[in-house]
Amino acid sequence: MKKTNVSSVMKEMRGETYQQQLAMELNVSRETISKYENGRSKVPRDIGRALTRKYDNPKFAMTLRNEYSGTGPRWLDGPNVDLHRSAVKEKTVEEIQEALEQLERTSLVKPLWKIEHFEKQNIEETLDELVEAQTAIDHLVAVICIEAGINYVDLWQKHYRSLASNGYLALGGV
What we know:
The longest helix has about 30 residues, at about 115-150. The chain is mostly helical. The chain has helices at about 5-15, 20-25, 30-35, 45-55, 60-70, 85-105, 115-150, 150-165. Helices cover about 65% and strands about 0% of the residues.
């Protein structure tokens, strides 16, 4: 299967819109859009944000975040993935339960610089389970937003505003 990357998702997302039309909306040249879609140029942050707002495409947002940071969940596109909302929900519940069970078995009381090798292994297993749960949760949110027509970008903006109002984010971060 073809690797999911920013350029391929961008081309897929654009659909029937001509490159020239998108270029005019983004105030760049058609050639620049072509370079982004063919992977010859990286999509700059401002263009990535504009495209995320314009298309409100969770797959693009996740792919953009992963490709540029090298972290966070990648869009699942392998031969064994089932992105039907029911399958994603069941997998998410399973991954959250496994992560919670592993987390409950992990002690974080001792300063981490004093842990023994076996304790470090346990912490790494816990982090692995948490990352698996995070991937499942991100996909569940994305799939439900797509299928229900819920605005993914607005959902995150609302979350950031809530974090800021509760003192977890500086007001300039929203």
